[in-house]
Here is the input.
Amino acid sequence: MKAFTGFPAGKVKFTPLPNLFFSELLPAIDDLAELKVTLHIFWLLHQKKGYPRYVSSKELAADGVLLKGLMALGKPPEEALREGLERAVARGTLLRLVAETDDGEEQWYFLNTDAGRRAVAKIKSGILKLGVTVVPSEPPAVERPNIFVLYEQNIGLLSPMIAEELKDAEQTYPAAWIEEAFRIAVERNVRNWRYVRSILERWATQGKDDGLKKDRRRYIKGKYAEYIEH
Here is the structure.
C-alpha cells in the first residue's frame, strides 16, 4: 500500500458534499465501486461550469483517475464502473438520461438534486434543447437493502455481537422475510432485533402464508438450518 504524504500547506481546493450524503447515503452504500463512482462524479460535477451539469458515459470511461481507483477492486475497471453506475442510479443518487447524439448513443448522469431533476425533465420535454434525441429507458431495479442496512435504518448502531447474529440470520432466512420482519417491527413500534428474530423464527417453524409455506426447507439455510423444525 502506497502511503499518502498528506495535504499540502497553503490553499487547497475542496469539493463540497451535502450533509445528507453522510447521514443517509453513506450508511446505505455497501459496495466500494458504487462509493468510488459516486464520489468521483461529485468531484467532476463540481468542476463543471454552465447549465446543465452532467457527466457522460464516454467521459467516465476515459477518466484515468477514476479507472485507476477502480482497478484496486480486483476486477476490470470497466466492469466496476458499469456496476458502480448501475447501483448509484438504482439507489437514486444519480439520474440517467440516454441520448442519441451525432456520435451515437450516450448516457448522461446528473446528481439527483432539485437542479438535476429539473434539467432532466426539461431535456425530456424538449424545453431544454441540446441537439439530442432522448431515448426512453426502463428505470433500474432497486436492489433490496441487506440486513445490516435494515438494522441501522430501523433499530440503531451495530455492535459486534449483533452483527454476528445478523450475518447468521441473513444466511438462514430469505431476504424477503427479513425485510418484512423489520417492517412489521417498525409498524408495531418494537424496534429491537430480538423481536425481529422472533418473527423470523415463528415463520420458520409455523410457516408463512406467502407461497413459501408448503416447502419451507428449500428456503431455510445456513448453519442453524438443521436446528429449525421443518
In short: The CA atoms of residues 52 and 119 lie 6 Å apart. The first strand starts at residue 55 and ends at 56. Strands lie at 55-56, 94-101, 104-111, 133-135.
